[in-house]
Structure formats: C-alpha cells, structure tokens
Amino acid sequence: MKSRFHDWGKVSCFLLYSTISAIYCHKLISLNSEIKAKSYFFIVAESPAIVYFFRAVGLVTVGIAFLAYLYAQRWQLSLRGSSVLIAIIICLGTVAWIVRIIFLIQNPILRAILAVYIIGTVVTASND
Predict the structure, then answer these.
(1) Does pLDDT of 2 surpass 70?
(2) Nearest Cα residue to 70 out of 49, 94, 53
(3) Model pLDDT for residues 70-93, shown as the tens digit of each residue
(4) Are the C-beta atoms of 67 and 91 separated by less than 8 Å?
(5) In sequence order, what DSSP letters do the residues of 52-98 get, joined into one string?
(6) What is the pLDDT of residue 78?
(7) Quick one: CA torsion of 53, 57, 63, 69, rounded to 10 degrees?
(8) Contact indicator for 49, 35 with CB cutoff of 8 Å
(9) What is the signed CA dihedral for 39, 44, 49, 55, rounded to 10 degrees?
(10) Which of 1, 14, 112, 113 has its CA 20 to 30 A from that of 106?
C-alpha cells in the first residue's frame, strides 16, 4: 500500500509541474511572438522578459530537483513493474518539459539577456 501512495504522490507532483509548465509555455509563446521583432535592449529593459527568464530558471530548477528526487528514490521502487514504469514515464515527461522551457526561453529572451550582458561587460572593461 505504501508503494501505491508514493506512486500517486509522484504522479500528482508531476501533474502539478506539467500544468504549471504548460501554462507558462503558452504565455511564453505569446510573449515571444510580441517581442520577436524588437531590439535586444528593448527586450531586456522594457518588456517582462526578465520576469519570464527567472520563472524559466525556477521551473527548470524545480524540474531538476524533481528528477534528483526520483533518482534518489530508485532504490525504494517496489519490484512491481508498474512502479518502475510510472517512474520512467514521469522522468521522461519532466525532461521533456525542461527541454521545452529551455527551447522557448532561448529565443529571443535568453539571446537578448546574453547580448546585453556581453556588451555591458565589454563596455565596462574598455572604460577601465
């Protein structure tokens, strides 16, 4: 009975993470379409891109922490095939959400942040 409880706990955590990630990705797609033609300085300075960037960092961090938890729990999986199958499906789904978030944030938001950071670093270094 304990194994089934842990399976439901893992499934419910994955469903919560998936729901939050799906809503975030939907909003990020619409933001990307709005700011795609804008300059990198505008994206970093005036759009809500920085907020979306830090949300992406948070979601990826939570996803990696969830994967680490599942990896740590691998020894406690029962010998039933269903628990192992559920854990594998949850891991694959979490990795898929992490990859999707990184893919969506990298263009144009991450590129803008890196470009402005690099240009700022070069300008600051050349002034010294």
Answers:
(1) no
(2) 94
(3) 888 877 766 566 788 888 999 999
(4) yes
(5) HHHHHHHHHHHHHHHHHHHHHGGGG--SSHHHHHHHHHHHHHHHHHH
(6) 62
(7) -170
(8) yes
(9) 150
(10) 14
